[in-house]
Specification:
With 249 residues, the protein is mainly alpha-helical. It has one domain. The chain contains nine helices and no strands. The longest helix has 35 residues. The model has no long low-confidence stretch (mean pLDDT 89).
Length: 249
Amino acid sequence: MLWILIRHELRGMLRTWRAPVIAGVVLFLALIGPVTTKLMPQIISLAGGGLEILGGDPTWVDANAQWASDLSQVIPLLTVMVAAHSIAQPLSSGSAALLLARPVPRSALLLAPAVANAIVTGAAVMIGVLGNTVMTMILFGEGQTVQPIAMALRWLVLMAVLIAAAALGAALRGSMAGAAGVGLGVYFTLALLSAVPGVRDYSPAGLFSLEGGETWVWAGLTATPLIALIGLAAVRAFERLPLASSPHS
């Protein structure tokens, strides 16, 4: 039954604005990042004021750094907002209550849109990686394929934490505002903690270290039980959440 609901959610995302918006934004950032990095000296020159870029002309390393920045700053916010809408909208509109009239596990109503969002967002980011890598190699004449893919795979763990947090917010409040609030709250909390070395090195706050290394290994190890705990808390909270009745009932 869960897989049936996931497929239903995937079709819904593809037929509405959600999947196109996610794919469009991710692909735009993936392709425009190397372009702006390459043109940065000219952009600064046009700005005037005697500004100069320190360290010489930009390289493919700078393009990869820009992609890592987009992965850790822009795309997570989009992920939370779209996931919050997908998970909470059926709860507040009454369609979830209609589904419960059938033999559908209550937890599946919460997990299906969360999993569907993870699949769509993850696929969009992996396609974005390919586009970013190709564009970087075209503009700079060199680059890497392993490092961008590795960064994207690490980012998937951060995405899982944020979507789980959005599901918890939806389960607690039954609204998009609640889902987005908890998801964004977790994101900004981890972002702030990532600036504290002692905390970042041994906690999920290190998920922002997309370049990898020992810091990210500890972050990944501690994030896995965190995702499980948030998911369990979301399911438990959802069991007690009163669902809105359908306006057509």
